[in-house]
Design a protein that fits this description.
The chain is an all-alpha fold and 98 residues long. It is built from six helices and no strands. It has helices at residues 6-19, 31-41, 45-61, 69-77, 80-83, 87-97. The chain is globular and about 35 Å long. The protein starts with 5 loop residues before the first helix and ends with a helix. 22% of the residues are buried.
Length: 98
Amino acid sequence: MPLLKYSELAAYVNHRLKIAGFSAEKSLFTKSALWYLFHKSRGVPRLINIFCHKALMSAYGHGKHKVKLRDIIMACNDTESVSHHSVAAVIIGLSLAL
C-alpha cells in the first residue's frame, strides 16, 4: 500500500474503524491527534495502524471516548522503532521486511 497523504488520513482511520465494527458518525480522533499521527507515521499505513491501536487502548484505559493528542503521543513513545529512531530508518526497515 502506498504512503497516505494527510488529506487521506482521516478517511483511512475511519474506514479501518468501520471495518472493525465502529458505527458512530463522529470521529474518535481529535484533529490534533490526527495531525500528530500523520507527523510521526509519515503516512506509512502499518505505522498508522500500530499507533491507532495503541492510542485507542490508551484512551480506553483512561475511560475516554475520544483519542486525543496525549494518547497518540503515548502510543508513539511506546513504539520503540519510532520513539528512538528517525522515520526514515523505520521506512527503510519496513521496506526491507517486505
